[in-house]
Design brief:
Blueprint (H helix, E strand, L loop, with lengths): L2 H14 L7 H18 L15
Helix pairs in contact: 1-2
Length: 56
């Protein structure tokens, strides 16, 4: 996993997730929020699932 994606996920998932609480709804919400944030704010050269886009 590229460092930028790993760092992004670490920062965002730590905000959204508290696995000790085990609240499934909060975990799902946190994952969706982090995925949405990355889709909006991620580098334009990255495509789905972090693969480099070949059309650029």
């Amino acid at each position: 996993m590229p460092k930028a994606i790993a760092a992004f996920l670490k920062d965002h998932l730590e905000i959204h997730l508290d696995l000790k609480v085990g609240n499934r709804q909060e975990i799902v919400s946190g994952l969706r929020s982090a995925s949405f944030d990355f889709a909006i704010m991620g580098p334009p050269t990255w495509g789905p699932c972090g693969y480099l886009r070949s059309d650029l």
